[in-house]
Write a structure and sequence with these properties.
The chain is of the alpha/beta class. The chain has ten helices and four strands; from the N terminus they run E-H-E-H-E-H-E-H-H-H-H-H-H-H. The protein has a four-stranded parallel β-sheet, sandwiched between helices. The termini are close together.
Length: 210
């Protein structure tokens, strides 16, 4: 089986690059495509968009139409953060987009609640192994309610770094640090140990798909 994965940024690609071999193994093939932001579902699902603007949702109807007409692609997986959106309503919108754009294509939509950094917070062992000095700020990790709407990446930054999210924003290093977290934590994630409901739902969906 061959699967195309669409994610909203480079850190998501790095995360999946480490995770997918654990879920899929050598019997399946895949490619991961990173975009430059999640964007918005376009009002005209059958209209044209500028492919040079690599914004995921803006281009998703066009992408799905293309995949539906491409031999050798068995399924497409779309992974996006919910951010501050209502989870159920957002998922319904995305499924409606799929039904209009590529009804015959196998498409799996998965949401990270609130942000994909919740998946790192779901595996305390992996997080502390990657960043041992975070043990000094474990009180923040203990108070975290899994997959809550709390400013997830900021919380993770506050746990990992003494200067926290404020320092990353000041130094304008948020994007690079998110990629660093993916490189350092994602290889240590264990699907069966992770407490994030959205992470577990993603893993279960991939396993059902294949």
């Amino acid at each position: 089986m061959h699967i195309e994965f669409l994610v909203e940024d480079a850190s998501g690609k790095k995360l999946l690059s480490a995770l997918l071999p654990k879920l899929l193994g050598p019997a399946h093939t895949w490619r991961i495509h990173a975009y430059k932001g999640v964007g918005h579902i376009p009002p005209n699902l059958k209209g044209t968009t500028d492919p040079n603007k690599r914004i995921l949702l803006d281009n998703l109807p066009r992408l799905l139409r293309g995949y539906a007409n491409t031999p050798g692609i068995d399924a497409v997986v779309v992974l996006v953060d919910t951010d501050n959106r209502n989870c159920a309503a957002f998922l319904a919108e995305l499924n409606a987009l799929v039904a209009v754009s590529a009804p015959a294509l196998t498409v799996l939509i998965r949401l990270a609640i609130e942000e994909i950094e919740a998946w790192y917070l779901g595996d305390k062992h992996a997080l502390l192994r990657a960043y041992p000095t975070a043990r000094q700020r474990q009180d923040k990790l203990k108070r975290y309610k899994q997959d809550s709407i709390c400013g997830t990446w900021e919380l993770l930054a506050d746990i990992i770094y003494p200067e926290g999210a404020t320092g990353l924003k000041r130094d304008k290093t948020v994007g690079s640090k998110k990629c660093e977290w993916a490189e350092n934590i994602a290889p240590l994630l264990e699907p069966e140990r992770n407490l994030s409901p959205s992470f577990r739902k993603f893993c279960a969906g991939i396993r059902r798909l294949v």
